Amino acid sequence: MRRAHSERAIEAIVGSALEAQPGEVLVAAVSGGPDSAALAGMLARHASTAGASLVLGHVNHGVRATAFRDEGVVLALGAALGARTLVRALAADDASEARLRSARYAALAEIARAVGARRVVTAHHAEDQTETVLLALFRGTGPNGLAGMPPLRRLGSGLSLVRPLLGVRHAELVGYCAARLLPYALDPTNDDLAYRRNALRGALAELRRAFPALDAAVARCAAIAREERAGSERAALRRRLREELDLAAGQVPDMTYERLDAVARALEGKRPGRHLLGRGLQVTIRRSP
Predict the structure, then answer these.
(1) Between 1.25.40.420, 3.40.50.620, 3.90.25.10, 3.40.50.2300, what CATH number should domain 7-208 receive?
(2) Which residues of 236-255 are buried (b: 16+ CB within 10 A; e: fewer)?
(3) Residue 248 has pLDDT above 50, yes or no
(4) Contact assessment for residue 209 and residue 199, using Cβ atoms and an 8 Å cutoff
(5) Residues 179, 184, 187, CA angle at the centre, nearest 5°?
(6) I need a labelling partner for 85 at 20 to 30 A (CA). Which of 104, 191, 218, 281 fits?
(7) According to the per-residue pLDDT averaged within each range, which of 1-10, 65-74, 262-271 is highest?
(8) In this structure, is the dihedral angle defined by the CA atoms of residues 223, 224, 230 and 231, taken in order, positive or negative?
(9) Spatial contact of 221 and 146, defined as CB atoms under 8 Å apart
(10) Alpha-carbon span 219 to 189, nearest angstrom
(11) Pairwise CA distance, residues 241 & 237, whole Å
């Protein structure tokens, strides 16, 4: 089971991912839910330490009865954190998920440009990544879909979208809000099974009882897919290493990605040591004379 992170540990994850510079403006995409409220709290602390400033960006889709309640929660959160809050409203003439998502990111990019920010930060977390990968798989996706959401992507000219919480669980973010006394609202549409993502959540809740490391495993698969797609040196090293091991010892079916990746990282860093790969197979890296 994935180890729970403390509040300070999650803050450190966010700080390490962003490393804001003095005078930099960060935009947090805040919906009003617990995930983005927690993100805003972490970013406020990081910005204060780094000498940066934080702006909360909220996009009111206007399609839910609770839309203005959510907007009010975000405004209250901004006041509690001492952060400037900017709201953009979307025309509610097309409620399709894809169009709303596209319009939301366009609005966040507009907010970022208005305040001179170059990065927009979102609160996508570990379960979001699992759902994204599995929904893509169920649609019969290729490598791009299996790669899931990248931690960093281009949002527009001179703008980046950052997702520092992909390794953090939703329950930890709810706990963070409770520990830091951050206000948030719950989305009533999360229980609407007409949305495919919500239907998948119910099934995943049952699967996690039997496979408690499910989210970590999906995250690893997505990371592998991203590295393979990018043609990274580490991906090439893992492939060569696997080929050499198969030639030397035959296929080892229980050799996990973590073990193989640990050897690849050790080889990259020229770190001596012994690595057990399963079925009695081990790799020893010795320091060059």
Answers:
(1) 3.40.50.620
(2) ebbeebbeebeeeeeebeeb
(3) yes
(4) no
(5) 130
(6) 191
(7) 65-74
(8) positive
(9) yes
(10) 26
(11) 6
Q: Check: CB of residue 133 under 8 Å from CB of residue 145.
A: yes
SS3 29: strand
- CA 160, CA 186: separation in Å to the nearest integer? 28
> Which of 51, 9, 26, 275 shows the shortest CA–CA distance to 168?
9
- Following DSSP, what letter does each residue of 126-139 receive, concatenated? HHHHHHHHHHHHHT
SS3 state at 231: coil
Residue 206 carries which side chain, given as an amino acid letter?
E
Name every residue whose Cβ is closer than 8 Å to that of residue 155 and which is 6 or more positions away in sequence.
105, 108, 109, 112, 120, 161
> How far does CA 83 lie from the centroid of its chain?
23
Number of neighbouring beta carbons within 10 Å of residue 131? 20
Residues 6 or more apart whose CB falls under 8 angstroms from that of 16 comprise none
Q: How many whole angstroms separate alpha carbon 68 and alpha carbon 74?
A: 10
Do 120 and 161 meet the contact criterion of CB atoms below 8 Å apart? Answer: yes
For the chain, helix, strand, coil in percent to 5 are: 55, 15, 30
Q: Are 120 and 57 in contact (CB under 8 A)?
A: yes
Give whichever of 135-139, 276-280, 283-287 has the largest mean pLDDT: 135-139
pLDDT digit string (tens) for 14-25? 999 999 999 999
Tokens encoding 47: 């910005």
What values do phi and psi take at 86, rounded to 5? Answer: -120, 135
CB of 52 within 8 A of CB of 20?
yes
Residue-wise pLDDT for 29-60, tens only, equals 999 999 999 999 999 999 999 999 999 999 98
Determine the residue type at 256: T
Where do we find the tokens 């399963």? 278
